[in-house]
Design goal:
With 294 residues, the chain is of the alpha+beta class. 19% of the residues lie in helices and 37% in strands. It is built from 7 helices and 18 strands. The strands form 4 sheets. Strands 1, 2, 3, 4, 7, 10, 11, 12, 13 and 14 form a 10-stranded mixed beta sheet that branches. Strand 16 and strand 17 form a beta hairpin. It comes from Geomonas paludis. Belongs to the pseudouridine synthase TruB family. Type 1 subfamily.
């Protein structure tokens, strides 16, 4: 099998645990995930199998969507319900309107300080390993973008919101920052990813459904569909054979002239119905094969 399963990750397991479960469910070793989810989080976890593992680098996961529940008045060291309480502050003077009024200041480009409990490495060591030892180190703020932020319901001290954001955004930190802007602190009670690039909640299946499926391959997103954001170019028979042997195609190897390439543009190459490769355009070297698929 080659392609992607969109797994609905349950709470209480790591993304790596899901990879192990998929390996056992489909009896295939070549499995990997993209877009790590925290153990307490649920939802969309794309899992690549077979040749899909080679395609992870070409995915467009620049935009993600989450649904989250925050709790005002309590801040934790992990910024979620799994952590130790580090402060408790009064929230009862706040109203739903106070939360709604904050929305505009959290839209657009933002500077976000990654949490200590994260997989970001410093000196080769994941920050969460340092955090577990009680060590806090300086981190650089990262630029993230919040495309939309909507409160689904507000029942203080809890509130549910949906956020559409750039890759690399920590929703835990967003909730914490909202709490600080209100002067009372906050942490996440629930976090569910509803979309990661083109992988959506509506397509997600449980590990149990995958393991019990009579036709597991029918649940697989085809390799090239996962790369649908890349322009598709058809090769001649001779051109396709070249590519499958690792030779860069020339203009005459395409059925139709490919036209101009943008610098850094990646394209899908096909031999008939067969998805053969991803090529990338370099300003100095021209078109090069980034990955050939078996």
């Amino acid at each position: 099998m080659n392609g992607f399963f969109v797994i609905d990750k349950p709470a209480g397991v790591t993304s790596h645990d899901i990879v192990s479960k998929v390996r056992r469910a489909i009896n295939q070793k070549k499995v990997g995930h993209t877009g790590t989810l925290d153990p307490f989080a649920t939802g969309v976890l794309p899992v690549a199998v077979g040749e899909g593992t080679k395609a992870i680098q070409f995915l467009d996961e620049s935009e993600k969507e989450y649904r989250a529940v925050l709790r005002l008045g309590i801040a934790t060291d992990t910024q979620d319900l799994t952590g130790a309480v580090i402060s408790e502050r009064e929230w009862s003077h706040l109203t739903a309107e106070d939360l709604e009024r904050l929305v505009p200041q959290f839209l657009g480009l933002q500077k976000q300080l990654p949490p200590m409990f994260s997989a970001i490495k410093q000196g080769g060591v994941p920050l969460y390993k340092l955090a577990r030892k009680g060590i806090e180190v300086e981190r650089e703020e990262r630029e993230v973008e919040i495309h939309s932020l909507t409160f689904e319901w507000i029942r203080l001290p809890e509130a549910c919101f949906t956020v559409r954001c750039s890759r690399g955004t920590y929703v835990r930190t967003l909730a914490c920052d909202i709490g600080e802007a209100l002067g009372c602190g906050a942490h996440l009670l629930e976090l569910r990813r509803t979309r990661s690039g083109l992988f959506r909640e509506a397509d997600a299946i449980s590990i149990e459904a995958l393991a019990g499926a009579a036709d597991q391959e029918a649940l697989l997103m085809p390799l090239d569909r996962a790369l649908d954001h890349l322009r598709a170019l058809a090769l001649t028979e001779a051109g396709g054979k070249k590519v499958l042997n690792g030779v860069v195609p020339q203009a005459h190897d395409f059925i139709e002239p490919p036209g101009d390439f943008a610098v850094g543009e990646q394209v899908r190459l096909y031999l008939g119905e067969r998805f053969a490769a991803v090529a990338e355009y370099d300003k100095l070297k021209g078109l090069r094969l980034a990955r050939v698929f078996n």
